[in-house]
Design goal:
By secondary structure, the chain is of the alpha+beta class. It is built from five helices and eleven strands; from the N terminus they run βααββββββααβββαβ. Strand 6 and strand 7 form a beta hairpin. The chain is globular and about 60 Å long.
Amino acid sequence: MYFSLISPAPGRERDAAQARALGPYEEHQWLWRFFPGAPDANRDFLFCHREVEGASRYYLVSGRPPMSPDAAWFVQTRDYAPELDSGARLRFDLRANPIVTSKRDGKARRDDVVMAEKKRLLQERGLNNWSEWQDAGKPQLYDLVDRTCRHWLIRRAEAHGFLVDEDALRVDGYLTHSERRHLPRTQQLRFSTVDFSGVLTVTDPDRFRSALTTGIGPAKAFGCGLLLVRRC
């Protein structure tokens, strides 16, 4: 496996900004250009986009080393084979798509964890929409996001071979995204993202290494699931 940083080449920041696509679908297709020679291959990379001092940075974990398709982008790559023992403490960052799966009409449905909790609370009170809830017990959106997303990550951490330090965990940047382009007229892509950061402890090195290379949660094609770690 390989870990890569893709960033604008020095002096080519303007060209890089013009070349980079912005929509979720286009961004994924644009990154495929860094993996030439296998147009029909399944996606074999995870990525995460960050803005650093106004410039785009892409972090990738991939089965093949990426190559820059033009002079505007600079690629730095190294082998990625983390050696970690049980009990290792690491700082982490994760952009994820927190969802809950339920059955409706005999079919499995995926729902955003925040929206699912909103629906549950409204049903308990016999309300149809959030604006109808006027009493003092109504939670603030920030508190609802923090509680539901924390619960989502903490539950999944054990299956992926780590424990989260709940006191150090931060939940930020909850956003909902929609995309209609490249889809049939009656369909619309909708998903949410949230940024986690904090400290974790490795409990199962094999499962944890798998999480580092295969990701956590859905929407990996849209920049979710890549767990970035560093030593405390």
